[in-house]
Amino acid sequence: MAIVDITIIPVGTGSPSVSSYVADIHKVLKRHEGRVEYQLTPMSTQIEGELPVLFAIIQELHEVPFTKGAARVATNIRIDDRRDKKSTMAGKLQSVQSKL
Questions:
Q1: With contact defined as beta carbons under 8 Å apart, do 22 and 72 qualify?
Q2: Beta-ladder partners of 2
Q3: What PANTHER family does the annotation carry (predicted)?
Q4: Domain boundaries, the chain
Q5: Of 20, 28, 73, 98, which residue is most buried, by most CB within 10 angstroms?
């Protein structure tokens, strides 16, 4: 199971606001509920699932701003792919919180 932190930045939209793009991206993620878990944060979105599935969904998400007229899209991806034990977003948070 992998965890991906993704930020999708539409460029040249005529407005500094990107919330409508983020909302449309999350509508796509909602269609994939059951295949992945996801969490919106103030600066990015985190997605948890099997790596091949995540790559396919990331490509779909990257296309969203283009469908809304963006001429350019910059997508930043960080992947945490731990294979020695099961790693989840909730488990990572619990591990830190247990040490506080």
A1: no
A2: 49, 81
A3: UPF0045 PROTEIN ECM15
A4: 2-97
A5: 73
Phi, psi angle pair for 70, to nearest 5°:
-65, 140
Q: For the domain 2-97, what is the CATH code?
A: 3.30.70.930
pLDDT tens-digit readout, 51-84? 999 999 999 999 999 999 999 999 999 999 998 9
Tokens 């948070």 locate to 93
Answer for the pair 46, 39: CB distance below 8 angstroms, yes or no.
yes
Gap between the Cα atoms of 75 and 64, Å rounded: 11
Going by C-alpha positions, the residue among 85, 78, 84, 88 that lies closest to residue 44 is: 78
Paired with 97 in beta bridges are: none
pTM for the full predicted model: 0.90
53-to-4, 17, 58 alpha-carbon distances in Å: 11, 29, 9
